[in-house]
């Protein structure tokens, strides 16, 4: 696709002072916005002063200082802009003009705020300033406009770099598709890996810079595809080279190349803001967004009885109820949920009829009692929609929770690997059918979750997950068929492993996504319980005064991102386990929830977010976390006194394990670390040890819950198995492993692919 970077970034900005840049420019990145904010603030200060007719000498001097500061800042800014212009000849003319305009406007502001040049009228101790009332406003507008143009032009250069990088990747991919020897492939893939690393850096920076959360989510999804597909491309290509006449190997490889091209194309669409397929849809794409818009319209009747027609309102409800058919028609929705959704849909139609009737009467008469009836009808309508929203949420999330729990042992994948190595084509065919069924279940789960995701970024994540299952399923099948045809092929076996890992990774990601969707529904989005245990300045931290806090840079944060994501997933698992306890005031539950909250704040640190701002904050949090773990161990000892003798040894063993792990974490957190490298190593160790404690906690909580119920002679009741569980493969059981593969587009993993290329020649 021929894409111009020129259309992708601009500025549309205005302040309370009426200052605005060109209407055709729109700020789309945080870096442009943050560069403009202090400038707008300084200029606003000047503009606000002009409204008062008299000023003292002290105020005049302050104004002069601000004017001079603006001029100096603009001068430095323009110098950088001119240097950029000299390095990029195609933008030199535009950039030079914008720089000249900015410099001129800055000098004008400095002149207009120069006390010595002002006309001082004869009066008291106060003087009148800004005899040219429009001069500063005009200069300020010109300054903002020209500075913005410089920033936008600089941003176009960044976009051009991304497009150029994409083009290099595409060109090398074409070479990779055509190679016929291992030696040539190794050489070209090494180049491809370096180009992908460069592309990852550029797009990662761009993703973090985007203001639009929807675009950010789309970018993250595309980059995740590229990262996973890079390893797939490696093994799929090797398999094709090893078995050039194998049709399933060729299909497998072609699928990877096709998916990578689509992901690269989407990145460029986001970066250049091009929308070939029309991104903005008139109708709501999910039940949540439809209900939200519908309720807003209904509640708007309180203020204005005439702002929409009854036909519009009826159409909106019809669209929502059409979407609920995705639930009622689904084979995986339980009978109970289906019946409730149908009942609420019928009730919603009745409530709307009643609302419209009262609404029409109120338009004609406007009597006080009619307005009261209208208020009641509005409340009943909104309550019905809230109940419908809750019902579809429960239907989607309960299905997702059951499916994810059921598929956590990956039995079909294991069976495919075993039968593939055995060369058992018949068995492979049988298990590929089962995988196809599993894929349909998971795709349906993603579609239903999208309706209840609650935010556009989460909707996009659901769509990405659906696409991943849809594409990866057939790729696993083709990889398994290749292995079955060549059972002694090490590379075919490795290739199947890579695709299976991608499937497992997506399942792990779904657990995290489900938790986030529930957080949004419960109003916890972005406000998960964060343990407030940071040392206050001047309090409780006398021993920390000599320690200089260190902040991790972008590269270091990227390195601990994977550990952080594993920690995040474990906090979700712990929270799920604590919610199963009937007694939420139980000491074990309380300590578990506290530790989960602290681990979550440490996860936020790995993202550069949350209350833990420096490494010292993190180390302090780790100490508190370890202390909380020791308290939990004491609670476990107390529980051991209440359980039967045959259960006691296991519980005490786990308690001792926890104590040992917490002591190790505490020692690590307290150990001194001098220098940036040592500090980062300590950060890595603290998060790793915290993850290990959380993994143990995930095993402890269900054990304690079981013993607690056993102790009370309670039996609990099991839900009947859903219909999709009937065909379960009975090849053994496998405990849930904490090894998670929920990765973002990791630079480190790509660099590893490149440095480890030599092993190709031995296969």
Automatic annotation (TrEMBL):
Region entry Disordered, spans: 1-20
Q: What is the lineage of its organism?
A: Eukaryota, Metazoa, Chordata, Craniata, Vertebrata
Q: Where is the composition biased (Low complexity)?
A: 7-18
- Cellular compartments annotated: Cytoplasm
User: Does the keyword Magnesium feature in the UniProt annotation?
Assistant: no
Q: GO terms for CC? A: cytoplasm
Q: Which gene name does the record give? A: Ctnnal1
Q: What is this protein called?
A: Alpha-catulin
MF term (GO), any: cadherin binding
């Amino acid at each position: 696709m021929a894409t111009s970077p020129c259309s992708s970034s601009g500025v549309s900005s205005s302040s309370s002072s009426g200052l605005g840049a060109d209407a055709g420019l729109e700020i789309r990145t945080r870096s442009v916005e943050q560069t403009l904010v202090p400038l707008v603030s300084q200029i606003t200060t000047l503009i606000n002063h002009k409204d008062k007719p008299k000023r003292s000498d002290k105020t005049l001097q302050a104004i002069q200082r601000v004017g001079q500061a603006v001029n100096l800042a603009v001068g430095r800014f323009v110098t950088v802009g001119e240097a950029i212009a000299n390095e990029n000849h195609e933008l030199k003319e535009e950039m030079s003009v914008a720089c000249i305009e900015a410099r001129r406007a800055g000098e004008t502001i400095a002149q207009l705020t120069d006390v010595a040049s002002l006309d001082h009228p004869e009066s008291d101790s106060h003087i009148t300033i800004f005899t040219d009332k429009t001069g500063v406003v005009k200069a300020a507008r010109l300054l903002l406009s020209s500075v913005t143009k410089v920033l936008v032009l600089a941003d176009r250069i960044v976009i051009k770099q991304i497009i150029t990088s994409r083009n290099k990747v595409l060109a090398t991919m074409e070479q990779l598709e055509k190679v016929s020897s291992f030696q040539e492939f190794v050489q070209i893939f090494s180049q491809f890996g370096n180009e992908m690393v460069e592309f990852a850096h550029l797009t990662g920076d761009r993703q973090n810079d985007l203001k639009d959360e929807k675009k950010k989510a789309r970018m993250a999804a595309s980059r995740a595809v590229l990262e996973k597909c890079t390893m797939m491309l490696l093994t799929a290509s090797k398999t094709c080279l090893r078995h050039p006449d194998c049709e399933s190997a060729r299909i497998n490889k072609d699928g990877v190349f096709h998916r990578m091209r689509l992901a690269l194309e989407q990145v460029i669409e986001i970066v250049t803001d091009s929308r070939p397929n029309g991104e903005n849809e008139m109708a709501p794409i999910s039940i949540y967004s439809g209900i939200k818009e519908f309720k807003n319209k209904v509640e708007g009747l309180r203020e204005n009885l005439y702002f929409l027609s009854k036909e519009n309102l009826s159409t909106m409800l019809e669209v929502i109820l059409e979407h609920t058919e995705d639930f009622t028609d689904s084979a995986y929705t339980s009978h109970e949920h289906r019946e409730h959704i149908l009942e609420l849909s019928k009730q919603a139609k009745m409530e709307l009829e009643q609302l419209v009737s009262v609404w029409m009467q109120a338009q004609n008469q406007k009597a006080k009692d009619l307005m009261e009836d209208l208020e009641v009808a509005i409340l009943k309508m909104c309550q019905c929609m809230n109940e419908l929203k809750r019902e579809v949420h429960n239907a989607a999330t309960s299905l997702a929770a059951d499916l994810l729990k059921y598929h956590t042992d990956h039995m079909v994948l294991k069976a495919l690997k075993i039968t593939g190595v055995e060369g058992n084509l018949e068995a492979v065919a049988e298990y590929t059918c089962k995988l196809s069924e599993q894929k349909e279940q998971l795709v349906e789960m993603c579609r239903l979750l999208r309706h209840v995701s609650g935010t556009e970024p989460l909707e996009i994540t659901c769509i990405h997950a659906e696409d991943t299952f849809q594409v990866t399923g057939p790729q696993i099948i083709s990889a398994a068929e290749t292995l079955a045809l060549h059972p002694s092929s090490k590379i075919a076996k490795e290739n199947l492993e890579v695709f299976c890992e991608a499937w497992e990774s997506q399942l792990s990601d779904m657990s995290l996504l489900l938790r986030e969707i529930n957080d949004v529904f419960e109003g916890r989005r972005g406000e998960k319980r964060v343990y407030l245990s940071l040392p206050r300045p001047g309090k409780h931290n006398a021993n920390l005064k000599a320690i200089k806090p260190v902040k991790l840079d972008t590269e270091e944060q990227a390195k601990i991102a994977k550990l952080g994501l594993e920690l995040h997933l474990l906090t979700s698992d712990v929270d799920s386990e604590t919610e199963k306890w009937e007694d939420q005031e139980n000491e074990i539950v309380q300590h578990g929830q506290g530790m989960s909250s602290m681990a979550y704040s440490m996860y936020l640190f790995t993202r550069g977010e949350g209350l833990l701002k420096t490494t010292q904050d993190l180390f302090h949090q780790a100490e508190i976390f370890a202390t909380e773990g020791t308290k939990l161990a004491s609670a476990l000892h107390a529980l051991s006194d209440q359980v039967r003798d045959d259960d006691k040894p296991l519980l005490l063993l786990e308690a001792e394990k926890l104590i040992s792990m917490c002591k190790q974490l505490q020692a690590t957190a307290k150990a001194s670390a001098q220098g940036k490298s040592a500090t980062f190593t300590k950060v890595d160790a603290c998060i790793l040890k915290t993850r290990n404690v959380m993994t143990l906690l995930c095993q402890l909580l269900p054990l304690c819950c079981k013993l607690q119920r056993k102790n009370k002679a309670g039996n609990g009741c099991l839900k009947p198995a859903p219909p999709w569980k009937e065909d379960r493969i009975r090849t053994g059981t496998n405990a849930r492993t904490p090894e998670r593969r929920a990765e973002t587009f990791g630079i480190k993993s790509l660099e590893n692919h490149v440095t480890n290329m030599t092993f190709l020649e031995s296969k």
